[in-house]
Design brief:
nucleotide-binding; 20 helices; 10 strands; 4-stranded mixed beta sheet; 463 residues; alpha/beta; 6-stranded parallel beta sheet; Rossmann fold; single chain
């Protein structure tokens, strides 16, 4: 008669099935009976956890349908959506980030969208502060916060908290800018990394190439504290240690629960209901490929937004906005077109499209790897009927005795692919539905020629 036990917001992994019997029904109330008919297993929270305010978190790989699910949930639960997407925070980056439409934002309030301009930086720390403040505001107004997005680090910090790293003073920030300015102008990334290593941060060598924002921030931390970022405790790691040392025997539940309850500083602030939408990898890849095509249709499309970024004086891969998938590839493609006087072959266009699709599929794979290690998430099969998924999450939110476990009919295994699936993915080939032959991209090529060809003609005329 023991269900999975949630202890102060942290779930202990071992559970026994609660049988659905007449005796059970006699011992419980009407609400429990209704839930039990639909779901045979529960996450039972402690009394302390059950008093916490609930926050729903919906994540999943790109193209899985998390935005659509969040929108429908918000309508049913009187909720508001907090977007956890590191690209949707930028104004003007609408198509490539699959930003909710204006009509969708009129139906349901969306927060954390269009916060900064593309030439500005927006950090995970900024997101934590803004999202937590927004969550508190939504709850205070009696509504339901629904956090939806696929940026893993945003969600990790939002749920578990951010490291207690001090913000650099203006003097130190100016000093760091002065030290790195010439290196960044010369694009001497290796020298900048070595400067940071010598300052006391060996972890700088693991940074992604040309991630100047993070390099700046790490040097600020070293100069402010005398320690590298790795010296500061990351709240998520504390929870991960608790979960990894989980109980394997029911007799250990009480002692372990007591131990966790004593760790007030490591407790979660809210009662999070976290779900990760996923589906068959091949179906997901196909959906991603189609989605990339759709972003290039019409006149207000991804290439138009990429051209706007170039007109702002930004270069691909020069900051977080221009480093994002889709925009970087589109900007690089347009730069090549501009260098050729606006000329592009169909092969060039299809090369760009193929790279965009490949990078998007790889990103989805990385997202699934990331969230596979996030134990707080329950995985849901995104290919199941939306109505059933909505009903389950609503029931779990309204359940007074804890969180309902995802039923087998909706559950998505989060195991890695087997050998057969691996072979299928290795042989996967993109099959476009819009852009197939040269005639399908003529309009795109003509627009590019019209934009960048005018400059070439002007130069010839002047000479």
């Amino acid at each position: 008669m023991i269900s999975p036990i949630g202890t102060r917001g942290v779930r202990i992994s071992t559970y026994l099935r609660r049988p659905y019997t007449a005796e059970t029904l006699l011992l419980t109330g009407h609400f429990f009976r209704r839930c039990c008919r639909r779901h045979s297993r529960f996450f039972i929270s402690s009394s302390t956890s059950s008093t916490k305010e609930k926050v729903i978190v919906i994540s999943g790989p790109t193209g899985a349908g998390k935005s659509k699910l969040a929108l429908q949930l918000a309508k049913r639960l009187n909720g508001e959506i907090i977007t956890a997407d590191s690209v949707q925070v930028y104004r003007g980056l609408d198509v490539g980030s699959a930003k909710p439409s204006l009509s969708e934002r009129e139906e349901v309030v969306h927060h954390m969208v269009d916060l900064v301009d593309p030439f500005e930086d927006y950090s995970v720390g900024d997101f934590f502060e803004d999202a937590r403040r927004t969550t508190r505001d939504i709850l205070d107004r009696g509504r339901v916060p629904i956090v939806a997005g696929g940026t893993g680090l945003y969600l990790r910090w939002f749920i578990y908290g951010k490291p207690d790293v001090p913000k650099a003073s203006l003097d130190i920030a100016a000093e760091v800018h002065s030290e790195l300015a010439s290196l960044q102008n010369d694009e001497d990334w290796d020298a900048a990394v070595q400067l940071l290593v010598k300052a006391g941060d060996p972890g700088a060598q693991c940074l992604s190439a040309n991630d100047w924002y993070r390099l700046h921030r790490r040097l600020e931390i070293v100069k402010s504290t005398g320690s590298p970022p790795s010296a500061f405790e990351v709240p998520y790691n504390s929870f991960r240690e608790q979960l990894d040392s989980g109980v394997t025997d029911a007799a250990d539940v009480k002692s372990s629960a007591d131990k966790l309850q004593q760790s007030e500083i490591k407790d979660l602030e809210y009662d999070f209901l976290c779900y990760f939408l996923s589906t068959n990898r091949l179906d997901l890849y196909r959906a991603i490929d189609f989605r990339c095509e759709d972003m290039l249709l019409g006149t207000d499309e991804l290439l138009s937004e990429a051209r706007w970024l170039l007109d702002l004086g930004l270069l691909p891969n020069s900051n977080p906005a221009t480093r994002s998938i889709g925009y970087r590839q589109a900007m690089e493609y347009l730069l090549r077109c501009r260098e050729n006087g606006g000329w592009s072959s169909a092969g060039d266009f299809y090369g760009f499209l193929s790279e965009f699709q490949t990078k998007s599929r790889h990103f989805a794979r990385r997202q699934m790897s990331w969230f596979r290690n996030e134990q707080i998430y329950e995985w849901i099969n995104a290919s199941k009927p939306l109505e059933k998924v909505l009903s389950f999450i609503c029931d779990s939110y309204n359940c007074q005795d804890g969180h309902l476990q995802v039923p087998e009919s909706l559950r998505m295994p989060k195991d890695k692919v087997n050998f057969h699936q691996y072979k299928e993915m290795k042989s996967y080939r993109t099959i476009n539905r819009h852009f197939i032959g040269r005639e399908d991209c003529v309009d795109v090529l003509d627009r590019i020629k019209e934009i960048y060809g005018q400059k070439a003609v002007s130069l010839l005329t002047n000479t």
